[in-house]
């Protein structure tokens, strides 16, 4: 009976080991299937896009590389090699934006600009920072990062600013610098 008992245990033990090994292998395959890969649905080099509204150019986007992730749950477009954007107001005045990296989130119409961000206009006003957000719907920029603002009136530095795309409305925080008064 002892030999029978040993053989029975061996018979029971071997299939269990095979089943566990098989399950582990299947589990690894299931894990691989569950990994979500961010693969762009679109990939473009040397782009030059013009945005229009009622036949009028409202923006011109130039970038050496664009990756479009339109099929993910929260779709976005990435500009990993930087971008240059020119915004046009209704009178044709231009605002220029440069960044080393940018991401545009399609659902919120927000653009996250990063790395040596510079925004300037034809009036000689310029803002420089490391990160800047642009709310396309409201045509509004903002950051909590340190910034340098240069205008014909002088140079100021601060940490935290928000402003309209034409610099007509500016709210800044923790500001220092020399600015000429018009009084």
| Beta content | over 45%
Give the spatial strand order of the biggest sheet.
2-3-6-7-5-4
CATH architecture of the largest domain: Sandwich
CATH class of the largest domain: Mainly Beta
Unreliable stretches (pLDDT < 50, length at least 5) are 4-23
For CATH, the homologous superfamily of the largest domain is named as Lipopolysaccharide (LPS) transport protein A like domain
> What structural class results from the helix and strand content?
alpha+beta
First-last Cα distance: 110 Å
Q: Residue share in helices?
A: 10-25%
Task: Output the number of helix runs.
Answer: 1
The sequence of SSEs as H and E is HEEEEEEEEEEEE
What is the number of domains?
2
Shape: globular
Count of extended strands: 12
Largest sheet, in brief, is: 6 strands, antiparallel, barrel
How confident overall, as mean pLDDT?
80
The value of Rg in angstroms is 28 Å
CATH topology of the largest domain: lipopolysaccharide transport protein A fold
């Amino acid at each position: 009976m002892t030999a029978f008992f040993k053989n029975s245990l061996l018979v029971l033990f071997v299939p269990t080991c095979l089943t566990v090994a098989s399950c582990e292998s299947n589990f690894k395959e299931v894990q691989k299937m569950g990994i979500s890969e961010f693969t762009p649905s679109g990939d473009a080099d040397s782009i030059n896009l013009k945005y229009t509204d009622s036949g009028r150019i409202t923006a011109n986007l130039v970038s050496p590389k664009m990756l479009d992730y339109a099929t993910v749950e929260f779709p976005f477009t990435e500009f990993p090699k930087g971008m240059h954007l020119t915004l046009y107001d209704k009178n044709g005045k231009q605002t220029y934006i440069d960044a080393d990296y940018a991401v545009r989130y399609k659902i919120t119409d927000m653009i996250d600009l990063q790395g040596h961000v510079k925004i300037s206009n034809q009036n000689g006003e310029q803002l420089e920072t490391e990160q800047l957000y642009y709310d396309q719907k409201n045509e509004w920029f903002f950051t909590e990062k340190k910034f340098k603002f240069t205008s014909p009136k002088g140079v100021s530095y601060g940490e935290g600013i928000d402003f309209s795309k034409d610099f007509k409305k500016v709210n800044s925080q923790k500001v220092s610098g020399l600015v000429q008064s018009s009084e």
